[in-house]
Amino acid sequence: MDGAHDMGGVPWCGPVQPEPNEPMFHAEWERRAFAITLAMGNARGWNIDMSRFAREDRRPRSYLAKSYYQIWLAGLERLTVERGLIAPDEIEAGKPLHPTQAGGENPHARRCRRHAASGGPTERKPRALPSSLSATACAPR
């Protein structure tokens, strides 16, 4: 997928200017949008690829006009509407307008809370070397 989100190395974009001592979240709503997206993935509402596609599959002007977590929120809105979990008019109103189909706590909620609290590792040890590589080919020299 090649779109506005894929700006690495393009001359018009310029270098990334990180904010000194930037907090992970600038506002509570950012934390909540991120947590709900992860929780729904844990509850099998969607997977990481579907979530990323929902964030990145938008017109460049729309993508570039949003902050990082506004893009996450837009993706979350898209996924919940596509799955019939909420209606577009509920997003517009900012509150439930229609009866819900299910009640009570999500059966995966406890696991989601544990997962969100623990963070997510970005590195994993491989279970086996790819068949095209031998152990000696990967050895440090």
How much helical structure, as a percent, in the residues?
A: 40-55%
Structural class: mainly alpha
SS field, number of helical segments:
6
Tell me what portion of residues adopts beta-strand conformation: under 5%
Count of DSSP E strands? 0
- Radius of gyration over alpha carbons? 19 Å
pLDDT < 50 runs, ≥5 residues: 137-141
Shape: globular
Mean pLDDT across all amino acids: 77
Largest sheet: none
Sketch the topology as an H/E string, one letter per element: HHHHHH
Q: What kind of assembly state do the chains in view correspond to?
A: single chain
Terminal Cα span: 37 Å
Descriptive notes:
- The protein has 141 residues and is an all-alpha fold.
- The chain has helices at residues 28-42, 48-56, 60-64, 68-82, 88-93, 109-118.
- Helix 1 (28-42) packs across helix 4, helix 1 packs across helix 6 and helix 2 crosses helix 4 (68-82).
- The model is unreliable at 137-141 (pLDDT under 50).
Which terms would index this structure?
disordered C terminus, single chain, 141 residues
Provide a brief overview of the structure.
Helices cover 43% and strands 0% of the residues. The chain is an all-alpha fold and 141 residues long.
Topology:
Blueprint: H1 28-42, H2 48-56, H3 60-64, H4 68-82, H5 88-93, H6 109-118
Helix pairs in contact: 1-4, 1-6, 2-4
